[in-house]
Design goal:
The protein is built from eight helices and eleven strands. By secondary structure, the chain is α+β, with helices and mostly antiparallel strands. The strands form two sheets. Strands 4-11-5-10-9-8-7-6 form an eight-stranded mixed sheet, sandwiched between helices. It has a three-stranded antiparallel sheet with strand order 1-2-3. Strand 8 and strand 9 form a beta hairpin. The protein is globular and about 55 Å long.
Length: 258
């Protein structure tokens, strides 16, 4: 039932910013305006997939000039991986985790954690995620605040709109000087919300900032009436960090790309 609940969430969450096209056993989400470029997912109830089905979606994605990207949960759609691989795509697998107990979070010194508003420098906050996911994992390096200027997006209009409407809630960790060093969001739909985009600048990693930021997002989600909080970890190392603070693995989130 939990996986079914997440599947309904996966089907509903993109619809606030994308139109949906049904192509065979898939639903292709195509973004409207700026913001995140979406993907195709198995339509709810679809259980059989063939490489030809995947090829048809990819042809439509190329026609629309959007990424040839697919997302699904391995346990919910066990027959999809074979069709995806037969179409020539590469599959990335990520631990799918759900909050099981109240989070236990280490204290973080010299860092201010708070929710972000439209009055903040959203371009700089967004740049944190771009830099962090450009160097995935938990390894520390010298990449820090100096990298933010070149990673800032040209426009934050869609992000401002989602913050105003409550479709996305973003939190960030700041130095005492006001520089963002970590950021992440959650996206509530009814009683379910996904923690997304939690990333810390490599120079500030392994200080508990990511866990503390996640705890702040969880606290906000629960205050909004959310009962199920989940996330997809970048890899097994990141998943172990989340397990230590209250999440447990329930499945595998898959992403396929050329």
């Amino acid at each position: 039932m939990l996986l079914e609940r997440l599947e309904r969430y996966y089907d509903q969450a993109p619809r606030s910013a994308a139109r949906a096209e049904v192509i065979g056993p898939f639903t292709l989400f195509v973004k409207q305006g700026g913001g995140f470029a979406y993907y195709a997912r198995p339509s709810i109830g679809s259980t059989e997939f063939a490489a030809d089905d995947v090829d048809r979606v990819r042809a439509r994605q190329r026609q629309l000039e959007v990424p040839e990207s697919f997302e699904w949960v391995a346990e919910t759609s066990p027959g999809l991986s074979g069709a995806i691989l037969a179409s020539g795509l590469k599959v990335h697998r990520h631990p799918l985790q759900v909050l099981e107990r109240p989070m236990t979070v280490p204290e973080v010194s010299d860092i201010i954690l708070r929710l972000v508003s439209v009055d903040d420098n959203l371009a700089r906050v967004s740049a944190v995620g771009r830099v962090a996911f450009g160097s995935p994992g938990t390894a520390i390096s010298e990449v820090g605040l100096e990298a933010l200027a070149s990673a800032a997006p040209a426009s934050v209009e869609s992000q401002q709109q989602r913050l105003r409407s409550g479709l996305t809630v973003t939190a960030a960790a700041f130095t005492a000087e006001g520089d963002p060093v970590a950021a992440g969001s959650h996206q509530p739909v009814d009683e379910v919300s996904e923690i997304v985009g939690v990333g810390t600048l490599p120079a500030y990693r392994r200080r508990g900032i990511g866990a503390a930021l996640t705890a702040l997002l969880v606290e906000d989600a629960l205050a909004r009436g959310v009962r199920t909080v989940f996330l997809s970890a970048g890899d097994a190392d990141v998943a172990r960090l989340y397990e230590r603070v209250g999440f447990r693995r329930i499945g595998t989130a898959c992403i396929a790309e050329p």
